[in-house]
Amino acid sequence: MNNKIYSFIFLLTISLMFALESNFSIESKYGKGNEVDYRTGLISDSTYNYNEHILDAHFMLDKFYFYSQFEYSQPPVLGDPLIGLNNFYLEYSTDKVNIKIGDIYTLYGRGLSINIFQDQVIDYDNRLRGLEAKY
């Protein structure tokens, strides 16, 4: 009986692997040195170290799309240190309906009314966590 269950789980896993589209990307930043004083242009005595890694994982299955971003920044280039899940969302999309739950990044009115985005270079993030539904 156990062999039949294990066989079923194995076949289900293999079927999902072939049906699931996935994409992974990683961005790594590491630096060690001295800071530059931007007012004078001279190298200061204080040290400047950063170690930051950002892993993006995307999964798509039929009408569902899942996005997640994991971050390890100890210490980061800018901002607060973070180890763990940085942002995520799950989206369901058909011809007439689009539902997104999680961290919402969106653009309305060509960015003049609402422009929600993330910029890793300057550590800027004005996301909203919630639910977005379009019909």
Any key phrases for this structure?
1 helix, flat, mainly beta, two-stranded antiparallel sheet, 135 residues
Distance between the termini: 47 Å
The geometry reads as flat
The overall pLDDT, averaged over residues, is 85
In spatial order, strands of the major sheet run: 1-2-3-4-5-10
N-to-C SSE series? HEEEEEEEEEE
SS-derived structural category: mainly beta
Q: Mind describing the biggest β-sheet?
A: 6 strands, antiparallel
**Helical amount among residues, as a percent range?**
10-25%
- List low-confidence stretches: none
> So how many helices?
1
**Counted beta strands:** 10
Strand-residue fraction?
A: over 45%
Radius of gyration: 21 Å
Would you write up a description of this structure?
With 135 residues, the protein is mainly beta. It has one helix and ten strands. It has a six-stranded antiparallel beta sheet. Strands 6-7 form a two-stranded antiparallel ribbon. A two-stranded antiparallel sheet has the order 8-9. The model has no long low-confidence stretch (mean pLDDT 85).
Summarize the structure.
With 135 residues, this protein is mostly beta strands.
SSE diagram, text form:
Blueprint: H1 2-19, E1 21-36, E2 43-61, E3 64-73, E4 82-93, E5 98-104, E6 107-108, E7 114-115, E8 118-119, E9 124-125, E10 128-134
Antiparallel strand pairs: 1-2, 2-3, 3-4, 4-5, 5-10, 6-7, 8-9
